Amino acid sequence: MAGEAILSFAGEIQKQIQADGHELSSLHLDEATSNKLDSYLSHLPVSTSTSYPSIRRRLDHAGTELWNSCTQRMTNCSEPTSSVVLCKVKAFAWAMLDTAISNRSLGSFRVLKTAYKLVKTCIEHGCVAISLKVIEAVAMRLDALEHLETDVDKARLRQCNVHYYALRVHLAWLQGRSDIADHLFLKLPESITGDTCVLDLCFKVGSSALSCSQYDVAAKWLGRGLEQCKLLASSSEGSDVPLQDKELLILHALVRANTHLDTHDSKDNLVRTLGHLKSQYSNMFSIRLLELEVLARENRDVERYFQVLQDALKVMDASESSFRMCG
Fold first, then answer.
1. Residues 189, 133: Cα–Cα separation, whole Å
2. Rounded to an integer, what distance in angstroms lies between the CA atom of residue 222 and that of residue 258?
3. Does the record bear Oxidoreductase in its keywords (predicted)?
4. Which of 93, 158, 260, 323 has a CA-to-CA distance to 133 between 20 and 30 Å?
């Protein structure tokens, strides 16, 4: 596909996006444009068969403009169908950037960073098929980067690999392939200091499994997330409030998962995790409520139940922040 043809098509889409009006929440492409867009996306990565610097610069510029237009429209878009259209257009814009930058260029880091943003956006809007296409193209670029003869920032490359495998794990999970998700998780580059990206991944998968009543799977992924919390905490200096908030959410979910399991390990984990929550967050109503839920399931020690209930009433705070985890 010639570079000029891609640039011409990008111009057509840009006009339709602008003509549709930024003040409108919905977006619709005409049928011919929509079909052509789908055709381009089915052949990712897009190839222009050109090495002319002038064409590459124009692809970079036009792709960036189209990407920014979509990003701006998405901030005001609440209509699901329009969001899907914008995801497709963003994918095409990214394909232009991907084409503009050589696989053997250090500019690949910018392309990869943009790709990861795109995949996350597509996942949020249910466009898993597009995410899979993009992640396939990312794999080729990562492989080329790893085999560059010039010096490459190893730490930066490692982080790109972390994001790549984290997204692949998430996509495998969304496709219902927990076995593949487990396999890919083992391919994540290890870190003695932990990784926020991996922590967030574990919480997403664990929370999803919990909501689907897959309690053993939830406990496994939330446990992995808790390990990341510990590594990150041990390597951080001073108090890390965002990390503490994530740890609280993971511990809370981990207790809920283990209450539904009936193994020796799960019971030990339940006692240990709930004990940690009580020692660190005893003044939170949601934690007292969680303890009541555990006691109710055990169906014993009525006196203890009413004592915890009294404690819960003492610390109850009717603010939104106190109730946000009670559901």
1. 23
2. 10
3. no
4. 158
Which SS3 state, helix, strand or coil, does residue 240 take?
coil
CB atoms < 10 A from the CB of 177, how many? 14
Residue 14 host element (H or E): helix 3-19
Distance between CA 86 and CA 69 in Å, rounded? 9
Burial category of 167 from C-beta neighbours within 10 Å (exposed 0-12, middle 13-18, buried 19 and up): buried
Predicted TM-score of the model (pTM): 0.85
The answer to whether 277 touches 258, Cβ cutoff 8 Å, is: no
pLDDT tens-digit profile of 10-38? 999 998 887 655 555 577 788 999 999 99
Q: How many CB atoms lie within 10 A of CB 313?
A: 10
Mean pLDDT, range 305-318, rounded to an integer: 61
Contact indicator for 195, 162 with CB cutoff of 8 Å: yes
**Start-to-end C-alpha separation, the chain:** 52
Q: What is the mean pLDDT of residues 195-218?
A: 97
**Rounded Cα distance, 81 and 145, in Å:** 36
